[in-house]
Design brief:
Blueprint: H1 7-11, H2 13-17, H3 34-45, H4 49-66, H5 70-90, H6 97-108, H7 111-127, H8 131-145, H9 153-166, H10 172-190, H11 204-217, H12 221-230, H13 239-255, H14 259-272, H15 274-277, H16 280-292, H17 299-308
């Protein structure tokens, strides 16, 4: 009998969105389709982390099987493990997912998949003090993607995104170099035909968004705030990115002493993706703001919703 996909087996991510129960018969080693991975990405992009977390065990089980099914199966498995790593970061956790994504991506032989795995691995490496490893991984991914005489649009975009990730290493010269390379790649992409129905991830807005965090971490709040003024959140393609933009802007404004402006941005986080306002890092930011300005109008209700009752 043909193996069911995760979707066809009744554990479809769309069904999970509706909160439906998972039938017992669905656990019989479901296959992993490209559609499953794409739908999982859509849940992440929408900030639907609880729903994604609910089906992640099934996706991970399917990924373990898919990784052994040739290059295409390994690429799908890597996509799931990349998402699992990204979800863990959102939840303030680490796990083995990035390493598994890298192994599966290597099996796939696809440089774009390898770059996505490198980006997923870089964040936990950086956060655990292994910045040199993160930078090496990302630099290798960029070199591999751009090694050909005529890199594809997907290659260019993946290289630019890897560069933006590398720019967050908090080393001034390297950060500026990687950020500048990503902006140059964005200009190159603007000259390439755009694939209909596939939103481009590497854009001027994405570069501005990363610029806020990069310059803030380098201690240059004025430049970080200049990047906030360049940013058009309404042009960012997903709820997760819009929430990220508001979070980073709130941090920069708070560094500049603008508590009221920071609260306004935190409200935008909640409006874009409510679960973003309740994830550990943003709750800590809100608690910090409350410690600095406990009497700020409107802050008490926001704290009650997102910090006191985060779920």
């Amino acid at each position: 009998m043909k193996r069911r996909s995760v979707l066809a087996a009744g554990v479809a991510l769309g069904a999970s969105v509706a909160g439906g129960p998972v039938p017992a018969w669905a656990a019989a080693e479901p296959g992993l389709s490209a559609g499953d991975v794409a739908e999982a990405r859509r849940l992440f992009a929408a900030g639907a982390y609880t729903r994604l977390g609910g089906v992640m065990p099934l996706l991970l089980a399917a990924a373990a099987h898919s990784a052994e099914q040739g290059p295409a199966g390994a690429a799908r498995a890597a996509g799931v493990w990349v998402l699992a790593s990204q979800l863990a970061v959102k939840q303030g956790r680490t796990g083995p997912y990035a390493e598994r994504a890298g192994t599966a991506a290597t099996r796939s032989g696809d440089p774009v998949v390898l770059a996505a795995a490198a980006r997923a691995a870089a964040t936990p490496l950086r956060r655990t003090g292994r910045t040199d490893e993160a930078l090496l991984l990302l630099a290798e991914a960029c070199t591999h993607l751009l090694a050909g005489t005529r890199p594809t649009t997907a290659d260019l975009e993946a290289a630019g995104l890897a560069g933006l990730t590398a720019a967050q290493a908090h080393r001034p010269d390297l950060a500026r170099d990687f950020a500048a390379q990503a902006e140059e790649t964005t200009l190159r992409l603007a000259r390439h035909p755009h694939t209909p129905g596939r939103p481009r991830e590497l854009t001027a807005g994405q570069c501005a968004l990363h610029g806020i965090g990069i310059h803030r971490h380098l201690g240059d709040v004025d430049t970080a705030l200049a990047h906030t003024r360049r940013l058009r959140p309404d042009r960012l393609p997903t709820a997760e990115r819009r929430a990220r933009a508001a979070t980073d802007t709130a941090r920069a404004l708070l560094d500049a002493g603008d508590a009221a402006g920071a609260l306004a941005q935190l409200r935008l986080v909640e409006a874009a993706a409510p679960l973003e306002a309740r994830r550990p890092a943003v709750r800590a930011l809100t608690a910090h703001l409350a410690g600095l300005r406990p009497g700020l109008p409107g802050l008490g209700g926001f704290v009650a919703r997102t910090v006191v009752s985060p779920v």
